[in-house]
Amino acid sequence: MIIYGHKINQLARSFTKKLNEKINPLGLHSSQWAIVLYLHERKQCTQIQLSRYLNVEAPTITRTLIRMEKSGLVIREEGVDKREKHIKLTEKASGMFGIWKEVENDIQAESIDGIDTNELEVFNRVLEKMMKNLD
C-alpha cells in the first residue's frame, strides 16, 4: 500500500532542503520564501490572511515576520484595528525577488526533469483535489 501523505511530505522535505541550500546564502529561508511569494502576488496582507494561507499558527507567523522585519525584508504596519497588522515587502525584498525566484525555478526544473507535460498536468490536478479534500 502506498502512503501518499508520507510520500508528499518526503518530496516537500527534499524540495525544501534543496531550496534552503540555495537561498540561505542569499539571505532567505524557505519558510520566509512562502511569505515573500504571497506578498509579491498580493502587494500586502494581514497577518491573519497570511496565517490562513500558509496553514500556520499565528504565533509562528509572528516570529517569522519579526525575523524578516529585522532582516529588512518586510514592513509591518498597524491597521485600523491596532491588533491588526498589515504586511508588505520592502524595496530590499522586492529587489531580491527575481534572484530568489530564479533559484526556485532552477530547483523546480531539476525536480521535474524527465516528466512529461501530461504527467505534470495529472499530478497537479491530483494535488489540487487532495488539498481540497483536506480543507
Chain-wise SSE layout:
Blueprint: H1 4-23, H2 30-42, E1 45-46, H3 47-54, H4 58-70, E2 74-78, E3 85-89, H5 91-111, H6 117-134
Antiparallel strand pairs: 1-3, 2-3
Essential attributes:
135 residues, globular, single chain, mainly alpha, 6 helices, three-stranded antiparallel beta sheet, Arc Repressor Mutant, subunit A
Distance between the termini: 24 Å
- Lateral strand order in the biggest sheet: 1-3-2
The count of helical stretches stands at 6
- Named at the architecture level, the CATH assignment is Orthogonal Bundle
- What is the average of the pLDDT values? 92
Global shape: globular
Could you explain how this protein is built, in words?
The chain is mainly α and 135 residues long. The protein has a single domain (4-106), classed as Winged helix-like DNA-binding domain superfamily/Winged helix DNA-binding domain (Arc Repressor Mutant, subunit A), CATH 1.10.10. It has helices spanning 4-23, 30-42, 47-54, 58-70, 91-111, 117-134; strands at 45-46, 74-78, 85-89. Strands 1-3-2 form a three-stranded antiparallel sheet. Strand 2 and strand 3 form a beta hairpin. The chain starts with a helix and ends with a helix. This is MarR family transcriptional regulator. Keywords: DNA-binding, Transcription, Transcription regulation.
